[in-house]
Design goal:
The chain is an alpha/beta fold and 318 residues long. It is built from eight helices and 14 strands. An eight-stranded mixed beta sheet has the order 3-7-10-8-11-12-13-14, sandwiched between helices. It has a three-stranded antiparallel beta sheet with strand order 1-2-4, with no helix packed on it.
Amino acid sequence: MICRMIIQVLMSGTLSVATTIAAGSEPIEIALWGDTQLAADDIGKYEGRESDRPNRWLTGVEHPVVSVYRPEAMNATGAAVVVFPGGGYAGQAIDKEGHYVAEWLSQRGVTAMVVPYRCGGGKQLHPVPLADAKRAVRLMRSRAEEWGVDTAKIGVMGFSAGGHLAATASTLFDLPLEGPLEGIDDTFAEVSARPDFSILVYPVISMRPEVSHGGSGRNLLGESPDEALVVQMSADEQVTAQTPPALIVHSIDDGAVPVANAQRYYEACRAHGVPVEMHLYETGGHGYGMWATEGSVAAWPAVLEGWLVGRGLATAAN
């Protein structure tokens, strides 16, 4: 049995490190910034949403607690994906675009980490979400040997605003941050925060008002960000030759995040020689996660599986 630390809510209303579980079963839960005692309210508030599956909405995260899903040893490929759920930087669809995705990945031999990053405007404006994203990649890389992960096969995946976070983590990985938690614990400061690949699903990419998702922009940058910040946080304008390869999925009829976001990132990657693959679907709308059941967009998880398998990052599901 592989020992794995988890964090449990105790009767006192605090979180504490406890017990062990076997790989391939329940996820590990770890305080992202190294806290060993957290008030239960600090990890966020959950609300249910109408669905025939678990579909909670998470807000109010003060101290992120990540969940790590490990595959069965016989199926493990050594690849890992850090997952950022979407929610307009107001909250997160933590199950549909987080835990369910991580389970799907682990069933295909991939170690997956769900990151309930801090967001919601106010004191959680940029650079707070990006600080959490970079920390999560560093945490995964720092625990690679323990978790059976290849340090050259660690990617990021995000949906909607989480796609923006994954894209900025892929383009601003060397950006020094002056956020409130960046200097609290420098345990991983020397560990690379650069992802090795990215998966962007109906992503917010640009902060330019003509194409951006307005709520995401306000919740991340505030009401009136200056031009320099808009440029910096428009991921398509930050792509370089060092940006990792990307898979992009979007629906042309997306009424929340214009498909131009995906197209701009694709074109930027092409212009800089970054390997990129984009799949656009005529219909599908927004926010389907991996649950789309109608139309051609329902096939996108199979596209993802093929992309991962083709790069030696996953095994095909039985």
